[in-house]
Design brief:
heterodimer; A: 822 residues; Aldehyde Oxidoreductase, domain 4; 3 domains; seven-stranded mixed beta sheet; five-stranded mixed beta sheet; globular; B: 337 residues; alpha+beta; five-stranded antiparallel beta sheet; four-stranded antiparallel beta sheet
């Protein structure tokens, strides 16, 4: 590859200057002639039905152009995935507008007017009356025998027992009064679970255990708090819909929009060069984007929908809170022999999130229990939509489990790192339940190496020596946490053209949500081709620009999936270039190598890639994209056809073998200082060490690992949702009230490092890193807190100073561990 | 009629350019105009359409209302002086460091650049029921939603609640009360001077106001007499986040000592009641006492006598006690203790 080393090097990403100079345009920054503006009417009730509505006064207002109701929206349609599977539409799923709102703040109707002042005044001129319906904003309340349900039909999603193939529907689940017997003692009830699996001999594990703990811990509901709210601009031109909106995935959002609008993908164009964060909340856009699209069709004018911060708090999404209870049996050396885990997840009344079940899967990998039973139940409440949030399920499961590991280490007299080391997954470690004799495995784990690196870099022995030591009003604590999550998918397409001008034009279908993977992953292809980065052009962020079918940028898939796709496309182009070179210069194709913008063999035969591109156009066929691989996605086919004839085309689907499921790991180390007179505490220092294979771009890797650590720290420090249970209404409706972490709440000199060992099951060796830092950031802080002030003083996160101060004052935990949204 | 919590409705914008013009406008338009200093509190209300106005009197062009001046050995600070300017003023820092400290801990840098001292002491409460537009006592209704069995009242009052349990959110108010500051109020031609301790009103006095300001009144300046210059000062704010957060409890004190004995003291606590609470019983208990562990402990205990916590704010009692002890001690429990 000559001196064209790109993988593992820092560089200037193509979006950098625009972002730091403010030139970058987000969806709300666009202006189009004749644009109308939208305001939404949000539900004032947690559950109700529109009983009567009079919009005549609003419609009569000058400047009001249209009023959009739920009945004007396209009905939910079935989905055919890119694997060809049909997913039937969930008629009870979340829509852009509804006449039966299931949470306070849910959009009921939309007004389009010539300006926002008129649209807002028109909303106020609408006379609307809601029939109040039963509601609940606490999962344990709805599980009680007499508890209210979030929907008229029930309080959970499921399938009838006699027909497990039926589509999911709303059902009712209630637990017996007797199940709630230990709630007062802060223990989670354990009624019949919706989902249950088991492996190993649980009873034997508990019998052999030297220590058995029974712990309950609750994580919080947490909004995503993306900086760019779900604003969107839409207009129609010649039958095509153009949408400007933020999303995590450029290409796959076209599929979503087409499905929501019941249109062909060819007729939808998405412009999304910059997105102000996603964190899982808009993996493939948001259904709310259909509002300006439909209003624009109705009015014949472009329509801008600006979403306010309060609206974003409602529609933006929430990580599901999980109440967890863990009975864990440990051998005297800390080995986890038996783990009995129960999780109750809180869902909105819309599509179910799998967090409560997946929490157990992640825990089973991370701590390798010899035997485990997992019981998960997810119930519906009248609160905003739950959406995947960085490390969904895993974050909560680890946050529930980590305090148990810390407490066990203290009771067994084992070092905190040692107990995690002895239970750590090594190599191709198994996870989840067995299927017959087979248990799935991860592709690789170097968590032990990450822990060992962290011990050294964090100077763990020194921190440990002062942990729990008090000086005046201050006491310090040191904590460690391990973490993991899935880190890569497979099977997507790469596409680029090297033109006769010698430049490489790469098509990127990745969403630009701030991780830089939209550009980073293509460094692999440029390096393989031997083309310097300054001769690479990346097309991204506009789906009319002939982009290939691309993974969703969620669940840390992209770096893994799209470096594979880039590798496949580059391998395709190299093979073509070799054949062209051999046909022009003679010799054996396999003897040719690409480097320094040329293709050459050792005998001195050589031509430039510009010449190869020229030749590819002359040869046509598969060389310049006139013939395409049969296994690429139809979306890629259309794009490649449009680019055919421009030069040497690299186009291929990632068909590389993979043995196992890809997971990344993190070891996090925190030191905190608690002020026992106020209960306030500071994170003094933090280190995260990643194991996610080969690092593609160190700067964006560092940004991911530390940024997501901060997200996790926020879950430990102060961030939460707040509801008044009697009224079912939210109280923390603004950012300052729900308190995501600020830059001043986290250590100034946080450090990161990585073991940087390639994953053996992917050609580039790279895995994603977005998810696992989150739980490590949260749980390392919680563990450091316990090390400082003692076990059993808190049972829920976030841990705010009132919890600490009251516990210290009374010598015992004083909080309500199982009340939701406080 | 339906509600929408976005977009400030149209209003008439009045921008006086001199103090006299401002005073006149405020008097003339006392029934329909809303006075805006930095706008950090007001714009929230207006954008939420929870409170409305026909006209806004924007004071940002009135230069006479800005700046820190020496006055009779003390200081006079214009009501429109930004919190950043208060925090960075050499005069304030040198003589009344606790006020500079308090101003530097308000909200965030952006808010301190825009927010003013006059606005900070005149702002409305942050009770989230009231701010969300619930028709509580303070909003003219007949109940307090924050004081019910299901209410989330972690940030509410433990003292002097009277139907309403909202608290004063100001960080600069406790230092000003501790310094015996005076609020200069113009009403037409008439200027009156109100002691800072009397400027703030609790719900027992008026449940719909936080200060004595009435329509037609304009707070023009805050005077800090030389009385406490040279005393030992203390200010501390406890909050959930290190920036962009209101106080859970804050404390301000000024203590004069001689030969290890306390001569005189001012101790004021914020965010525990609807107004900053000057703790006169604590002050009286401190006068003449030796500054020792017993005196410090006693001050904290006296401070919280009569506190009545709600379901979720019991922590404010030990927090207030400990902060008062720190104020008297002059800092956190030292390492040698």
């Amino acid at each position: 590859m000559g001196d064209n080393r790109l993988v593992g090097q820092n560089y200037r990403t193509p979006d950098l200057v625009a972002k730091v100079t403010g030139q970058a345009k987000y969806s709300e920054d666009f202006r189009v002639d004749g644009m109308l503006y939208v305001k939404l009417l949000l539900s004032p009730v947690p559950h109700g039905r529109v009983r009567s509505i009079d919009t005549s006064a609003a419609e009569a207002m000058p400047g009001v152009r249209a009023i959009l109701r739920a009945s004007d929206m396209p009905a939910p349609a079935d989905v055919v995935t890119d694997l060809g599977e049909t997913i039937e539409a969930n008629l009870k799923g979340e829509q852009a507008l509804t006449d039966e709102p299931l949470y306070a703040g849910e959009p009921v109707l939309a007004v389009a007017a010539v300006d926002e002042e008129t649209a807002a005044a028109a909303i106020e001129a609408i006379d609307i009356d809601f029939e109040p319906l039963p509601f609940v904003v606490d999962p344990l309340v709805t599980l009680r025998p007499d508890g209210p349900n979030a929907r008229l039909e029930g309080n959970c999603w499921g399938r009838p027992a006699d027909n497990p193939q039926a589509p999911i529907d709303v059902q009712e689940i209630k637990w017996a009064s007797a199940d709630f017997g230990e709630v007062r003692e802060g223990r989670l009830p354990e009624g019949d679970a919706q989902e249950e699996w088991q492996f190993g001999d649980l009873d034997a594990g508990f019998r052999e255990a030297s220590l058995v703990l029974d712990e309950t811990f609750s994580t919080a509901n947490n909004q995503h708090h993306v900086l760019e709210p779900r604003s969107a601009l839409a207009y129609w031109q010649n039958g095509k819909l153009f949408v400007h909106a933020g999303t995590q995935s450029a290409v796959q959002t076209v599929a979503s929009l087409a499905r929501w609008m019941q249109m062909d993908m060819e007729d939808v164009v998405l412009i999304t060069e910059y997105t102000g964060g996603g964190f899982g909340s808009r993996a493939t856009g948001a259904v709310i984007y259909t509002i300006p699209a439909v209003l624009s069709r109705m009015t014949g004018s472009p329509v801008m929908m600006r979403i306010s911060r309060e609206e974003e708090q409602y529609i933006g999404g929430i990580r599901p809170a999980i109440h967890g209870r863990v009975r864990a049996g440990f051998a005297s050396d800390g080995r986890l022999l038996a783990l009995d885990m129960t999780c109750v997840g809180e869902n909105s009344a819309y599509e179910p999130q799998g967090d409560a079940g997946f929490a157990g899967t992640i825990v089973s990998l991370l701590y390798q229990p010899r035997a485990m039973r997992m019981r998960g139940t997810t119930v519906l409440t009248n609160t905003p939509p739950r959406r995947a949030q960085s490390q969904p399920g895993g974050m909560q499961g680890i946050t529930i489990m980590e305090p148990v590991m810390s407490k066990a280490a203290r009771q067994l007299g084992i070092d905190q790192v040692a107990i995690r080391r002895v239970n750590a997954p090594v190599g191709k470690a198994p996870f989840g339940p067995a299927f017959g004799d087979f248990r799935p495995t991860c592709t690789s784990s170097f968590l032990v190496e990450a822990l060992d690196r962290g011990v050294e870099l964090f100077d763990w022995p020194t921190r440990l020596a002062r942990s729990g030591q008090r000086s005046g009003s201050k006491v310090r604590g040191a904590g460690v946490s391990v973490s993991t999550f899935v880190a890569g998918s497979t099977g997507f397409d790469g596409l680029f053209v090297i033109r006769p001008d010698g430049r490489m034009y790469i098509q990127s279908g990745v969403g630009n949500l701030g991780t830089e993977s939209f550009s980073d992953v293509h460094r692999v292809a440029a390096e393989m081709m031997g083309i310097p980065w300054d001769k690479v052009e990346i097309a991204w962020g506009d789906t009319s620009q002939n982009l290939p079918w691309t993974c969703v940028s969620g669940g840390s898939q992209t770096t893994h999936a799209m470096t594979r796709a880039a590798h496949a496309a580059a391998s395709d182009a190299i093979a073509k270039a070799q054949q062209i070179a051999a046909s022009v210069l003679g010799g054996n194709p396999a003897d040719y190598r690409c480097a320094n913008e040329r293709i050459s063999d050792r005998s001195g035969r050589s031509m430039t890639l510009a010449q190869v591109a020229q030749r590819a156009v002359q040869m046509g066929g598969r060389y310049d994209g006139h013939e395409l691989p049969e296994d690429i996605n139809e979306f890629t086919v259309r794009s490649a056809e449009a680019l055919a004839g421009e030069g040497l085309m690299g186009v291929a689907r990632d068909n590389y073998e993979r043995d196992g499921t890809t997971f990344a790991f993190v070891a996090g180390f925190a030191e905190v200082e608690v002020d026992v007179e106020t209960g306030d505490y500071r994170i003094l220092d933090y280190l995260a060490v990643g194991d996610s294979g080969t690092i593609i771009h160190p700067k964006s890797y560092g940004g991911q690992i530390l940024g997501r650590s901060v997200l996790g720290m926020g879950h430990a420090l102060a961030q939460k949702t707040v509801y008044d249970q009697h009224y079912g209404l939210p109280l923390a409706t603004r950012m300052y009230q729900s308190r995501p972490p600020t830059i001043l709440d986290v250590p100034r000199n946080m450090q990161w490092d990585a073991v940087d060992l390639p994953d053996p099951e992917t050609p580039v060796g790279a895995k994603g890193i977005g998810e696992p830092p989150v739980a490590a950031g949260a749980a390392a802080v919680l563990n450091a807190l316990s090390a400082a002030i003692g076990d059993d003083l808190f049972q829920r996160s976030p841990v705010t100073l009132d919890t600490i101060l009251m516990a210290l004052e009374h010598g015992q935990a004083m909080q309500e561990p199982l009340t939701a949204h406080i | 009629m339906a509600t929408v919590r976005d977009v400030i409705p149209p209003f008439q914008l009045l921008q006086p350019s001199s103090l006299e013009e401002a005073v006149e406008l405020v008097a003339d338009r006392r029934d329909d105009a809303w006075i805006i200093a930095g706008g950090m509190d007001s714009l929230d209300w207006l954008k939420d359409r929870t409170k409305r106005t026909e006209a806004i009197i924007d004071l940002s062009q009135v230069d006479e209302l800005r700046g820190v001046r020496e006055l009779d050995g003390g200081l006079e600070i214009g009501a429109m002086t930004t919190l950043t300017d208060v925090a960075e003023s050499p005069l304030v820092r040198e003589r009344f460091g606790l006020l500079a400290e308090a101003a530097s801990l308000v909200a965030s840098p952006q808010i301190r650049h825009q927010g003013t001292l006059g606005g900070n002491v005149s702002q409305d409460t942050r009770c989230w029921y009231y701010r969300s537009g619930w028709t509580c006592y303070r909003a003219g209704g007949n109940t307090c939603y924050a004081d019910t069995p299901s209410a989330i009242n972690r940030e509410h009052a433990i003292l002097h609640a009277s139907r309403c349990v909202a608290v004063s959110p100001s960080d600069t108010a406790p230092p000003l009360v501790a310094l015996d500051a005076q609020m200069v109020i113009r009403r037409g031609e008439r200027e009156r001077v109100v002691e800072a301790a009397d400027y703030f009103v609790g719900p027992d006095l008026d449940i719909m106001r936080m200060t004595v300001l009435e329509p037609g009144d304009l707070l023009t300046a805050i005077r800090i007499p030389s009385t406490w210059s040279g005393a030992r000062f203390y200010f501390e704010k406890v909050r959930d986040r290190e920036v962009w957060d209101f106080p859970l409890v804050n404390v301000a004190s000024a203590i004069r000592e001689s030969g290890g004995r306390i001569e005189d003291a001012r101790v004021v606590v914020g965010a525990v009641a609807a107004r900053p609470l000057r703790l006169t019983a604590v002050e009286q208990g401190l006068a003449g006492q030796l500054l020792n562990a017993q005196t410090i402990a006693r001050a904290g205990e006296v401070a919280v006598e009569g506190a009545r916590p709600l379901r979720y704010n019991g922590y404010k009692v030990p927090l207030m006690r400990n902060l008062v002890q720190r104020a008297v001690r002059g800092g956190p429990l030292p390492a040698s203790a």
